[in-house]
Prior knowledge:
By secondary structure, chain A is mostly helical. Chain A is 67% helix and 6% strand. Chain A has 2 domains: 14-65 and 76-210 and 282-309, no CATH class; 227-276, no CATH class. The longest helix of chain A has 39 residues, at 2-40. By secondary structure, chain B is mainly alpha-helical. Chain B has 2 domains: 16-83, Arc Repressor Mutant, subunit A, CATH 1.10.10; 89-127. Chain B is built from 5 helices and 3 strands; from the N terminus they run αβααββαα. In chain B, strands 1-3-2 form a 3-stranded antiparallel beta sheet. The radius of gyration of chain B is 17 Å and the shape is globular. In chain C, the strands form 4 sheets. Chain C has a 6-stranded mixed beta sheet, sandwiched between helices. Chains in contact: A-C, B-C. Chains A and C meet through α1 and α6 of A and α2, β7 and α3 of C.
Amino acid sequence: xxxxxxxxxxxxxxxxxxxxxxxxxxxxxxxxPMHASFRNDGVADCLARGTPFSDTCVEVMARFGGEYGGRGxxxxxxxxxxxxxxxxxxxxxxxxxxxxGTWQLAWTQAVPRMRWLAVKLxxxxxxxxxxxxxxxxxxxxxxxxxxxxxxxxESTFDIEGVxxxxxxxxxxxxxxxxxxLLRRSLPALAAxxxxxxxxxAGVSIWARPNYQRPVTTNxxxxxxxxxxxxxxxxxxxxxxxxxxxxxxxxNAARNANMDLTGYLDSHGVARWDxxxxxxxxxxxxxxxxxxxxxxxxxxxxxxxxxxxRRAL
Amino acid sequence: xxxxxxxxxxxxxxxxxxxxxxxxxQAVLVGYLRPDDRLPLIRELAGDLAxxxxxxxxxxxxxxxxxxxxxxxGQGTFVLSSASSSMSPGTYSSxxxxxxxxxxxxxxxxxxxxxxxxxxSTVHDETGAEGVA
Amino acid sequence: xxxxxxxxxxxSGGVVEQTAIRTAQLSKRYRRTWALRxxxxxxxxxxxxxxxxxxxxxxxxxxxxxVGLIAxxxxxxxxxxxxxxxxxxxxxxxxxxxxxxxxxxxxxxxxDLLRFGRSCNIRxxxxxxxxxxxxxxxxxxxxxxxxxxxxxxxxxxALAMAKRPHLLVLDEPLASLDPLACREFLQTLMGAVAxxxxxxxxxxxxxxxxxxVCDYLILLNRGRVALTGDIDALLGDHRLLVGPRVAGPxxxxxxxxxxxxxxxxxxxxxxxxxxEVAPGWESHPVxxxxxVLGYLRRDAVPTVARSEPISQVPS
Lengths: 312, 133, 315
C-alpha cells in the first residue's frame, strides 16, 4: 500500500514540498545577514551584559532594530501555513475518495478498511507534522535575534516552537472530518477553514491568557520577554484609576509642566501590570499544543469510528 | 478456421438455446455441417455471441441427448456421423421457397399463425410423416 | 449465522459452494426511509444473475450491502461463504465489484491502476488483465480520465476480474455504454464466466438485452423482492391468458399476477403450471420483459383509475 499512498498523494506532496522549500529558503537567505549583524555589531554582547544598557548599547540596539525590526511584520502571515498543509492533506484523505466514488474501488480490494485508513492516517499526519514542524523550526531560528531583543510571547507565539505543528494536525483532523461529513473536497476545505479560524481565535484570545494564573504587581517590571495582559494606574489607597481619572492625571501633569512619571510619583500613584512571565513561554506552548492535538485526536477517532461502522 | 457461424435473434421470442439447436439441425440437414466437424467451444461461442455459457452448455447437452452431436472430453463437441442427411443446398432452398409461397397464400386466405400450425399438425398426423424435428 | 454459509460436499468429499449469496430478512434504513426491506434470497453459484427493478428500487443499496460497503440495519448476509461484515482480506478477495459509473482514479494511467490492483490484492492475475485490455485495444499508458466511457468500464471490469474472484458484482455496468461498447463488455464478461465458472450478479433497469445473458432473476421493487428464480423456470411457470372481457377477477384462476382489460377482452398474467384453459380462453407463453412489467404494474402505486364506463357495453 505504500506505493499506492505515494502515487495517490504525490502531486500534493511535491507541491507542498516545493512551496515550503522555497519559503524556507527565502527565510534562511533573509536571516543570514540579520544573524551576522547581531553577532558582529555587538548586539549579542550587549544583551549578554544585561540591563541597564550602556549608551553605546542603546545606540547599537536601536540601529539593529531600525534595520531589521520591520521584518517581523509580515511573519504573522505564516500563521496560515499550518492550515494550508493540514487542510490540504486532510481533505485528500476522504473527501476526494467520496466525491469521485473511488471509495467503492478502494474498499473492495483485499485491504481491510481500517488498515487502509490507519496507513493513510499515519502517513498523512506524519507528513503534516513534519512539514509544519520544519517550517516552525526555520521560523524560530529566523526570529532568534529579534526575539532576544523584543520577546516572542506576545507577538509570535503562533508561528514559533511546537504550536504550528499542533495547529496543522488540528487542521488536518478538521478537514478529514468535514470531508467525511460533507463528502466534497472544496466545501470540506471551506468548512474546515472557518472552523480553524474560529477555534484558533477563540483559544488565543480567551484561553491562552489563562493557562496559568497571571501575575499582578504594583510595580512596573515590564520586560519585553513577558506577555503583558493588562496595565493601569493605582493610587495610594489601592484604587485602580479609571480611564477618565488617568486622563485627568495626564492633563494635570502637563499643566504643572512635569513629566508624567514624576508627577505620578509625587501623588503616590504607581503603575500595575498583569502579565505572564517570559519563562512560562514553553509551558504555554506545550499546553496549547496539547489542546489542539487532543481535539485533533478526538476528531480522528470520530472519523475512524464512522468508517468502521460503515456509516458513511 | 470457423466452421459455422451462428446468429441469435433476440426479438423472435424463441429461447436462445432452441435457436442454437435449430441452427445446428438445419446446418447438418443442408450439409453446412458435416460429420466430425467440431462445433465452437462453449467459451468461444459465449464470448463471440455474448450469451450465457450455461445456455450454450444446455443446447449442446440436449443435442447430445438427441444424438446430433457428441462431446469428447478435452477436445470439444463434434457432429455425429449418424446425424447427417444428404440433402443438397439446392433442394433445401427450393423446399423453403415452396413453403414460403404456400404460407403467403395461407395468410392471404385469412389463416393466422395458429391456424397454420394446426393445419400442419393435422396433415402431419394424417400422413404419418417421420423425422419431425 | 452458520446456517447461512451454504455449502455441500462433492463426490470426493471436498466442500463445494452451492449457494453464492444468501440473505435473511435483509433491511436497510436511511433516516426514515427503508431503502430495502425483508430481503431474503438464495442465489446459486455459476450463474449470471440479473437484478432488475425501476430506479430507486434499492438495487444499489442491495449490491453495496452484499460487498460490505454499507452495513445492514437488520438481517444477515453470507456471500461466497463469508459475512461481508468480517472485512478480512480473504473475504474481500473473493468478490470483485464494479460500482455504478465505473469509478477509477482518473489521474492514474491504466498501468498504474493494474499496479494498484496488484498491491492491494491477495490473488492477482496480471497477465489476464493485460490480455483482456489488449483484446479491446486499451493502451496501458493512457490516463484513466482520458478514456471513453466504454473503455473505463472495460478497465474497471479487468481490475475486478484480475482478482480471480468467486463472485463478480456489477452495478448498472451497461448504463452509459453505446451499443458496441455494450456488446464488447458482455463478450468479455461471458468469456470470463465460461472460463472460470465465476458467478455474476449485475443490476440493470433495462430488461431487453438480459435474456441472452442472464439465467437467474431478482426483481426488486420499492425495496422488496417481487420475484426471484431461474429464468427458464419462471417463464415456464407463467402464462398469459386471453379471453373475453370479464367484470371481476376470474373465480377459478389462482395466482393471478395482473389483469388488464381492453374493450372486449381481458388479459391475465398467471403463475400456474399445467393450467387447464376454459373454453373461449387462450394460453400464451410469456417473455421476460412482459413478466417483469406485469409484476411491476401489479405493485405500482394506483394512479387515477382509468375506468371504462360500463354503460358503454351494450346490454
